[in-house]
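The instructor's notes for this session suggest beginning with a concrete chain rather than abstract definitions. Hand out the sequence below and ask the class to guess, before any prediction is shown, which regions might be ordered.
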Amino acid sequence: MARVAARLSVDGEQSSHHPVDEVLPLPKLALYGFQHVLAFYAGAVIVPILVGSALKLSPHDLIYLINADLFTCGIASIIQAWGIGRVGARLPIIQGVTFTAVSPMIAIGLGAGGGTAALLVIYGAVITAGLATFAFAWMPARVFRVVMSLFPPVVTGTVITILGIVLLPVALKDAVGGAPLVGDGGDPRQLAYAVGTMLFVLVVMRLRRPFLSSIAVLLGLVAGTVVAFVLGDAKLDAVKTSDWVGVTTPFHFGAPKFEWFPIFLMLIVMLITMVETTGDTYAIGEIVGKDIDSETVARALRADGAATAIGGLLNSFPYVAFAENVGLVRVTKVKSRFVVVAAGVIMIVLGLLPKAAAVVAAIPPGVLGGAATVMFGMVALAGIQTLGKVELREEKNALIVGVSLAFALFPATIPAYFDKHLSADLSSLLNSGVTLGATAAIVLNLLFNGLAKGDPHNAPHLALPAQAAPDGADTAVDAVTGPAADTETVPRADADADAHADAAADADGKAGDAAGVPAAATADAQPKGRPAAEPVVAEERKPVRAVAAPDPADEAAAPAS
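After discussion, reveal the predicted structure:
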């Protein structure tokens, strides 16, 4: 079996085996990368805005938080998409600050008295949780696969669907002018911008021109903003008052403080973000057509942990694979991970140039809401597609999905319940649709299905433990597993697959000889309607061999025994 190189070769030559590894021309990289930045920008800056406002930070400190967030988002996305050693999934995944951490961080900060002093307690918890996540993802392969068996398709598909459903209200609130206006019924002008932007994106997609379709969201954002500016609803005042350069430095607000309860709370947040990243990694693999195994997920989680620890150092917050941009990849069908690398570079530049970031911030909420509604809907669809692999006619799987969705919608339906009936610490932890939905999916799956055997998302050979490479064995870099020399924790997917294929071929050949049937006949014999190269699903633990019925002509020609 041919190996697929997942990185650039030593001499800089690009691997063309898979669209994910394609390096596009520089103008396209810049254009597609900027589209990713626009798509995720609102979600990226909303977390520091919410946290900074709750802690009563000054406008100057709030701007600094936003710049630090963008700067660290760029670094985190490059680590995830480009990959450093065995850190990073090498997939088109944008990293952004997780919404799951907002309520816990506000609770931690208010408990510490607010202001910049509260940020030091938050950063101590963020750094510790990031290092713990990074260490967790380096567990031995056998142990990690046991943990990953908690997340079969029925769980990851449910979590991805929940992410899309929970994010849609965020987009719809932007569509009517933002959260403060929702209670007053919203702004009809902003809703008009949202509908117009959405229709524009859909019309561009309907044209079915590959290049235009790939930048449909970007064109929609630009067109909507231009119309809003002409009508006086897009303000550029912040550009005039912003500094030209703003450099993010480590520990800008002071040395972090490490306290046990904030650390405990942040560790729970990272457990939830691990489920999000796992789901998003499988979703992006489905979209780009690349097989995802335990090692790929481990690399993605290592990038999460590293980015979160770096975020604590650079005055930012916990990072997770951003579901918003998973929807963008599906809409645009641009699969190259180097587009995300380009987006990371752009984010770093924006993090250093407050004026440039202010231009992007001038996009009206209605325009952002219209584009985001399309993308978040595609995120939910990616989850539904993953659930399409699950036997939902079985009542137990149907119950897992349905009850988990109900739990996820509870905080959105009755937002004041937790604040009124639970302590502040528990309320900050549980008042999240993603937290409740993901927890319900994991617990219900354990109750009804138990632990899945092996890697539940792959064929059996991907779930086999790593084997020591023999002397002189090929040490080429594998697309999924990385350097073959590191055999302790890296599954040798290709080697195992080849061994299984050779063993099966030998066995079939011997069986064919014993029965008087040529080996080629047994190899060609397949059940009708099933292609010869169809992969074996994870539940099939025993090889199934189809034996061709002997042809009458062959029987007549065969010598008598």
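Then share the key points. Residues 54 and 171 are 22 Å apart (CA to CA). The chain has a mean pLDDT of 75.
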